[in-house]
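Journal club side-thread
Mid-discussion, someone asked how the predicted structure for our own chain would compare to the paper's figures. Pasting it here so we can look after the session.
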Amino acid sequence: MSLRDLLESGANVSVTVTLDDLKAILKEAAKGIKQTAEEPPAEEFLSRKEVLALLKIDSSTLWCWEKTGYIKSYPFGGRKRYMHKDVEAIRTGRKGGRHAR
């Protein structure tokens, strides 16, 4: 009878396991956990002050960009936050202007 069959039977038994066997069992169990635990990284958000400093712009420029849809803000606790990837796209010239791709 395999260990899996024994576990599925629901029988109340005591099992003696060697340290090497226990390591092998835990290693196999960890493989299954690693595959399910991998999640995409959470989006990074920047504050208004961080965006102004990174882009070296005035707050009125940021306000205009928001109103025209050039950059989108997200409300968090009564304050606006901006996606880091959006700010980077503007900073590196990948969004808008003549350098857009």
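Post-session note: The mean pLDDT is 83.
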